[in-house]
Amino acid sequence: xxxxxxxxxxxxGVSLNDVQKQAVLQTEGPLLLLASPGSGKTTTLIMRIGxxxxxxxxxxxxxxxxxxxxxxxxxxxxxYERFFPQLPPVQFSTIHSLAYEVxxxxxxxxxxxxxxxxxxxxxxxxxxxxxxxxxxxxxxLILRKLFASITGDTITDDQMDELTTYISYVKNKLLxxxxxxxxxxxxxxxxxxxxxxxxxxxSGTANLLIDFDDxxxxxxxxxxxxxxxxxxxxxxxxxxxxxxxxxxxLVQHAIIEKLARQHGNLCVVADDDQSIYSWxxxxxxYLLEFKQVYPQATILYMEQNYRSTQDIVHVAAQFIKRNQxxxxxxxxxxxxxxxxxxxxSLADYKLQxxxxxxxIQKCSRLSEIAVLxxxxxxxxxxxxxxxxxxxxxxxxxADNRFFSHWVVEDILNFMRMTFTDKRTExxxxxxxxxxxxxxxxxxxxxxxxxxxxxxxxxxxQHVKLHDYQVKLIEECRxxxxxxxxMPPQQAIKVIRSRLGYEKAIEKMCDxxxxxxxxxxxxxxxxxxxxxxxxxxxxxxxxxxxxxxxxRGARHRKxxxxxxxxxxxSAKGLEFEQVYMIDLIDGILPSKDDVxxxxxxxxxxxxxxxxxxxxxxxxKCLELITYSQRDGxxxxxxxxxxxxxxxxxxxxxxxxxLKSRQVFSKESVQRNPNAIRELAxxxxxxxxxxxxxxxxxxxxxxxxxxYVQFPAGVKVLLIETCLEMGLLESAETDVSSMAVSG
Length: 741
Prior knowledge:
Layout: H1 2-12, H2 18-25, E1 31-35, H3 41-54, E2 63-67, H4 70-83, E3 91-94, H5 95-110, E4 114-116, H6 139-151, H7 157-172, H8 190-203, E5 208-210, H9 212-225, H10 227-236, E6 239-242, H11 250-260, E7 266-270, H12 285-288, H13 290-293, E8 298-302, H14 310-319, E9 342-346, H15 351-360, E10 369-373, H16 378-389, E11 393-395, H17 401-404, H18 406-419, H19 424-430, H20 440-447, H21 455-462, H22 467-482, H23 488-496, H24 501-512, H25 516-530, H26 536-553, E12 562-566, H27 567-570, E13 575-580, H28 591-595, H29 599-614, E14 617-626, E15 628-629, E16 632-633, H30 638-647, H31 654-670, E17 686-689, E18 693-700, E19 704-709, E20 712-717, H32 718-724, E21 728-729
Parallel strand pairs: 1-7, 1-8, 2-3, 2-6, 4-5, 6-7, 9-14, 10-12, 10-13, 11-12, 13-14
Antiparallel strand pairs: 15-16, 17-18, 17-21, 18-19, 19-20
Helix pairs in contact: 2-3, 3-4, 5-9, 6-8, 7-9, 9-11, 14-30, 18-19, 20-21, 21-22, 23-25
């Protein structure tokens, strides 16, 4: 083995550290390889495969390497071919393709005809489809039709995303029918839609319809119920290796476990600190329970980071220790220092994209720069500013839906009404979002009037109205006429306020469960795009132009262009320079991360997402926050505050330490009911404080607990609370509380 390692070092310049060597040498039995960011996991995995073939004499066809995505599988295959060009190929594949292979063989044996209903499809073509004569066999079109038939409404893009995520979650978690209702989903009648979707796939057409999630569940069921087929696949491979296993779901783990059950030669490469896909069914708990499943397993820690500078690695390693449900790893690097992590606090959200543009204009190697964000919507404002500055960009996950969103279309229809108010089809599209409170019946009546006059005058003169409507409709008519020729940014402000559009959106959010912040964010982005444009025609043209720019941005991979990416999609990438934007509470972490019942799990996942972003940077990392957005005050992300604390720890004076120790000793004697364990300070728990009274814990960070008392939210240091006995359970007699805060 030493000869093998030395030869590859001379041939490729690949020199393994002690842990990496051990991972290569440990070929037999179950192995969990916990790989910190930038620790060379792919190189180690490929060297391990090479050692199995060249040193142990295992034929490549007896080795199965499985990863999470096609891109990762392609990368592993390319790396293997570069390291071992003379060796026969090894099977690198996704778990989906493995499950599909099993499913395909099963259906071939049983003579079952099936059809895959996922893949690329232009959903804009749906208007030309004859639903009755020729029903579409595509997952999203089937769901769109079912949603319409069940709810009587048209599904939005956001609802479609949530619905497909919900279905994938249910399938990947292997949830039985009686537990579907327990999975949160704000899409109306989601469970019924899923029921009918499953029924349609089984009996709605001549062929059995299969989506990507079905491949996994069917593959798992086949291996579970057909021992002969299971043994065939078990005998095919002597060694199974999985990469990115923190992203693997319950059903995917179950398939891999069955495959390796006979020989037990399973190598799992993962990083529990980078598990960020629980919303689509990933099971990071599988890693934490690995020793329970495989008691004889070896666990190795690859903690050396080769990617980033000391400045970044030190802070990121401390930051991730906020989380409790993790292996106790301590990432380190032998790289030198470059420059400290920069934290930039701006006065207003609108300055953010302009600031990033100003910084990047000084750079020439644009391909080594990334701007990362949590939500795709953040990219539109960036794109607008970068395009104006002439800076090319590549969007890893470009999403054109912004430009077809109904809010954007509403604003354009309002603007069209300023040119002429004689088009009833325009009023029909926006009449429920005007301050005139025009009902569907009134709209139907005005549509019958074909006199080429103002739709508002026709309403006032020919349609029965309520008394309160008359003045409101007159104001709408006059306002739209005043807006003719108005600059687009000012026009949007008038639409939002005087025409009542923003109030209408708020009501829709209450009634239909839309996210108000997201919809208001679209309006604010439209105002940003409209800034400095002279006419509404210019604005409409700018939107069309930006939509084409966005389409083109998908094809700039490998060019000298800045990368825009969500934090989720950035995993596995690396850049010299990284900007993380929109770092405020409410976005990262989101309100759901903090407030949900399972807030600890969600907050820990948000922490991991932030950590993934930090560890994409090799040399320069800048965290950007701001104190105001859309006219409202914002709060810096608690994650940014934590980074600042790690970088600049507060010195503890000996005097305060001494007095606190004395106080702590006294408090133990006088308050036996005080909370002493961190686990008891859980979000949602009711506690008592002698001064502030009874309160409820809203959230907990690495060193602070936020408690809602009658007098307001109080932020208390956890260490102080535990040592001094400041809090006790609300069920305890308050008279026993002897220590004041």
